[in-house]
Amino acid sequence: MTWQYARKVQRGRDATVMLWSVHGDGRRVRDGELIGARERLSWPVMAGFGAQHVAAMISATIFVPVAVGLPPSTTLLFSGVGTIVFLVVTRNRVPGYLGSSFAFMAPLVAAKQHGVAAQLGAVVVAGGILIVFGIAVKALGVRLLESVLPPVVTGGLVLLVGLSMAPYAADPFQSQPGIGVITAGTVLLCLVLSRGMLSRLSLLVGAGVGWLIAIASGRIETAKIDALINAPWFGVPEFHAPELLPSVMVLSVPVVLVLVAEMVAHVKAVATISGQDLDPSIGDALIANGVSTALAGAAGGTGTTAYPANTGLMVATKVLSTAACAMAAVCAVLLAFMPKVAALIDTMPPGVVGGLGIGLFGLLGMLGIRIWAQSKVDLTNPVTMMIAGAAVIAGVGDLTVSIWGLELHGVAWGSVAIVVLYPVVRRLRVRREKFT
Fold first, then answer.
1. What are the residues whose beta carbons fall under 8 Å from the beta carbon of 73, sequence distance 6 or more?
2. From first to last of its 436 residues, what are the pLDDT tens digits of the chain?
3. Are 163 and 396 in contact (CB under 8 A)?
4. Which of 217, 208, 188, 176 is nearest to 354 (CA)?
């Protein structure tokens, strides 16, 4: 074997084991330049991007388990673990962060009277169904996606998921409008007036400025400051075992539809930003989210999903590196064992949360319209306009209807309208035109 040949073989081996290639010199990035999923900058810079992902997801990830009566540290732990599972199963091709899903709130609150174990059983079942659905998508391939999820549907799902998060940005923003304006304004100024790394780290800068202003003006809740002072530095998350009760398990079935819609919307959004065809990875993404959800439910956490805020962050910064997601996941795992630091992050003012969310969720929603524009969807078609519009209204208005004691929220109804109702109505319209 010659020396040159040996070098080529070694380079090939290095390429197969290397997870990320260094983008440029690892320190500087030109304005508007995209950092791909398998690229990274220097590790200190990637730590900053990871911190942005943590800032984007931490408040909501902790809020969901607290609202339904499950241990937040356990959910935070499996949020990080689930993200790592997601990156592994999707083979480092799809960037994403998995946080606790709001879709589980209604069924878990309804199941609260049956105890924590029964609640977790519903989470495990949802994860199992999602895995089966992901396997079906992977087996049947892109044809299934093209028939069930054409551009008009996927664009509508992205728009729906983004705008359905509006209350989770507007409500905290209204509670501290001054802090919200300062946070959002700082992010916008960084994006517009700065160049290079400051522009890409705009979310972190905006959160920091808003947070400091809130501290200086005494806008941090006293109870949260007391919780920070009294929180221990180290603690083990609280684990619970699930129990499968048929009466509770059925509550999780509608949740799966929402999880599918959210994950498809996320992958399509990332594909639109990167310009790559990620349809072959949708099955893997669904399987990964199913495994993550099942693991969380088996130990005491809530189900997971791709977070719209983190997707919006990728849109704003054009940083799709899975290294940033991995850094955020490791941070989440560490925080689960550090109650003091988790309590510090919990002091993030509502105005900061609202200021960040109002921009990120809006960006994600507009990305749905971008998918329609790029795919040349005919928005003059009354069927398309009616169903997509009704779905978005259902999501933004959080249309909640109870059927046989089971509450279904706006994202569920909106997803049903787009994924199920649209192809049915379209076919009826085509048949009518054929016979007239």
1. 235, 237, 238, 336, 337, 339, 342
2. 444 434 444 444 444 345 777 776 667 767 667 787 788 888 888 888 888 888 777 767 776 776 677 788 888 898 999 999 999 999 888 898 898 877 776 667 667 777 788 888 888 888 998 999 889 888 877 666 666 667 777 777 777 767 777 777 788 888 788 888 888 888 778 777 766 556 666 777 777 888 888 888 877 777 777 777 777 888 888 788 887 777 667 667 667 777 887 788 788 888 888 888 887 888 899 999 999 999 988 888 888 888 777 777 787 778 888 888 899 999 889 888 888 776 776 777 878 878 877 776 776 677 677 777 767 777 777 777 787 777 778 777 777 776 665 566 666 667 777 777 777 777 777 676 666 6
3. yes
4. 176
Antiparallel, parallel or unpaired: β 98-100 and 304-306: antiparallel
The span from the CA of 198 to the CA of 134, in Å, is: 38
Cα–Cα nearest to 32, from 153, 200, 181: 200
pTM: 0.69
Strand pairing category for 401-403 and 406-408:
antiparallel
3-state secondary structure 18-74: CCCEECCCCCCCCCCCCECCCEECCHHHHHHHHHHHHHHHHHHHHHHHHHHCCCHHH
Integer Cα distance of 155 and 376 in angstroms: 11
**What is the phi/psi pair of residue 213, to 5°?**
-65, -40
Structural contact between residues 77 and 361, judged by C-beta atoms closer than 8 angstroms: no
Token output for 1: 């074997």
Q: Quick count: other Cβ atoms within 10 Å of Cβ 290? A: 28
Question: Domain residues of the chain, as ranges?
Answer: 34-357
